[in-house]
Amino acid sequence: MSPEDMTKAATHPRTLVFVSPFKDICARKFVGRLKLGKATVRKHPKVQHRDWRGQPSRSLCSKVRRVATPARYSDWRVDCRPDAAGLDPEAMKEADALLHHKVVSGEIPGVISMVFRHGVLGHLDCFGFADVERQVAMRPDTIVRLYSMTKCIVSVTLGTCLEEGLLDLDDEVSKYIPAFAALKVSTEEGLVAAQRPLTVLHLLTHTSGIGYGPMLGEEPGCEGEERYKELILRAGLGRKCKSSEAVCTLENWCDELAKIPLQHEPGTQWLYGYGHDVVGRIIEVVTGKRLDIVIRDRVTAPLNMVDTGFEIPAAKWSRAAGMYRLHTEESEGCVAPKKLVRIDAPTVGSNEWISGNTSPIFAGGGSVDAMTGGMVSTAKDYSRFLLMLLQKGELDGTRVLRSETVDLLRSNLLPRATGREDVWTFDSPGVGLGLLGSVSVGHPDLDEALRPGEYGWGGMAGTAWTNDPHEDFMLLSFSLVAFDLSTEEVLRAGVRKSIADFRKCQESKGVGFATLGRLHHFPKGLQTCWAADEVIPCTVQA
């Protein structure tokens, strides 16, 4: 089914967009964020889930095969409680109406959005296709590409190393990777030796002078991207490791990266780049283990993130999402309507993220070759990671980080990295940067859509999240279109309006809304509900 045919079938689509960190035109929009929190779920006995006709259905998979129209989240029978979460349902419906239009119009194939607040699941919606070609419906256990949202997991892993005293943020990178000892900086006068040492903090705050190369097979758009083109091509050869030019390990990749001149002196400017990928190698050095193993042992396994890793097993192909771009075709001077084009391989035997096809380089944050980079995950898994952060490092009685370490990770560290108070993420005043992503701080020119204290980040494949400790909510959203720019802004505004309208309604009734105590355990029923092959009806309880 084509995207056009899909949109005709969709009656209640829902959408969420990602803002690209790689394009200058995305710079201001990328810094906007969303939010969420928590809930408990129990199995609802003897309740039979049914298909769109009301007929008994054994599983979601069987329903998808029978029906072309994408399923809504209500088909999974998990009840959200917007009132208990302090969200106005009508305001969320208004936001949904705006977001649904993107799926109806064919701008995105499908979307997942999730909001927790005050420990209660207030909003969860899946709509559209995860894979248009196979007509696979979006669902909470759909496996998506994280790209730059991998950085957040790498930073938490680094946080555990900081707690053990294995390294310090102010350590010089050359202490762990000797190739970075003799760095060159590109200036108008030519190449000069770096005057400042490159530190771990510079890498984590994108003040290192290391940039990014062209993404998704594009040609370099500037001289800064051009310098990384050869390394990207060599990393691509690393998939087969049959060429002497191939780069086949993270260690080898970092050594080659160190030969490329920095675009500015360390600690002087903000420039989005490969910093977290280098941090991944530092983690390997200080722990003596491969990055994937360290992340598994310290983060994903303790949090029971069962579908999160650097590859998708072939057995899970049925839940793997496709990846798309919105292209405009021109012919004879006329601009044709934009069309969704798939950019990853559509079969299990050739898809770039399937086990056996993946890059041997464990990228810690971005795309190190022409297509792939970073980890994969699901809404179910990543929400557990974000709830752990919102709860100051602990989830289900398992502590991943100390409370003070989480405070450090979510703080604006640009002043510490640069020694200046006027350095901002994407040059947006009031938008600082912590080790987990952007951090909004009080500033007269802060975008009115942002709130001081909120922090979050996004990924190139249409993924985005935000935690707001003040409002006690976490928001996570997945769409599947690269460089999508606007949906996150619509959804974030909808959540904020929903909170405000709920408060107004309570005040008009003379009822105060007391903040609910945070639940101590992530709902185990939610895990069962989102099992890969069986859909178990659930209800949410405060």
TrEMBL record:
UniProt cross-references to Gene3D superfamilies, sorted A to Z: DD-peptidase/beta-lactamase superfamily
Occurrences of domain Beta-lactamase-related (ranges): 96-472
Residues annotated as signal peptide: none
InterPro entries cross-referenced by the UniProt entry: Beta-lactam-related, Beta-lactam/transpept-like, Diverse_Enzym_Activities
PANTHER family cross-referenced by the UniProt entry: BETA-LACTAMASE FAMILY PROTEIN (AFU_ORTHOLOGUE AFUA_5G07500), BETA-LACTAMASE-RELATED
Full protein name: Beta-lactamase-related domain-containing protein
Organism: Durusdinium trenchii
Taxonomy of the source species: Eukaryota, Sar, Alveolata, Dinophyceae, Suessiales
